[in-house]
Write a structure and sequence with these properties.
Radius of gyration: 14 Å
Distance between the termini: 23 Å
Number of helices: 5
Structural class: alpha/beta
Order of helices and strands: EHEHEHEHEHE
Shape: globular
Mean pLDDT: 96
Largest sheet: 6 strands, parallel
Strand content: 25-35%
């Protein structure tokens, strides 16, 4: 991520892939990036208890009008009391790339996407961004790991 790229940010992370996304967000926030551009982070976990850094992510979303953060839970249910602890975050059930697709529909203009996480998560997200969002391959940066 370079603050001079002048693009809206889309970050999709599975599990610990959110570490790189947090770094991108912190750099963008430090440079006042979201005063001119939108950002969206989708953080996928299997169960709600696998999510981490929620307080920090909630603080980011609370402070910045142009940044939305969604936690996607692929297995299990949402505990409403837990969800209410983080009012600036959105919580959805489903695979992270599917949640991102539904929420981002019609909002892909001027987007650079960053993906990180397990290979299946990254591949599904890439496929969605290329076929549904019609992003160019050079507008997608990714890191797959297991």
């Amino acid at each position: 991520f370079a603050p001079d790229m002048k693009r809206n940010l889309l970050c999709i992370a599975g599990g610990s892939g959110v570490a790189g996304m947090r770094s991108i967000l912190e750099r963008a926030i430090g440079n006042g990036y979201f005063s001119q551009y939108r950002g969206a982070l989708f953080f996928g976990v299997r169960v709600l208890q696998d999510a981490f850094w929620l307080k920090e992510l909630n603080d980011f979303a609370k402070e910045l009008e142009n940044l939305s953060i969604t936690i996607a839970v692929s297995n299990g249910e949402l505990d409403q009391a837990f969800v209410e602890t983080f009012p600036a975050l959105k919580f959805e059930c489903g695979l992270v790339h599917e949640v991102a697709s539904a929420e981002m529909s019609g909002r892909y203009a001027n987007v650079r996407a960053y993906l990180a996480g397990p290979p299946a998560c990254v591949e599904a997200s890439k496929r969605m961004l290329l076929t549904e969002a019609k992003l160019r391959p050079d507008d997608i940066r990714y890191d797959k790991f297991s």
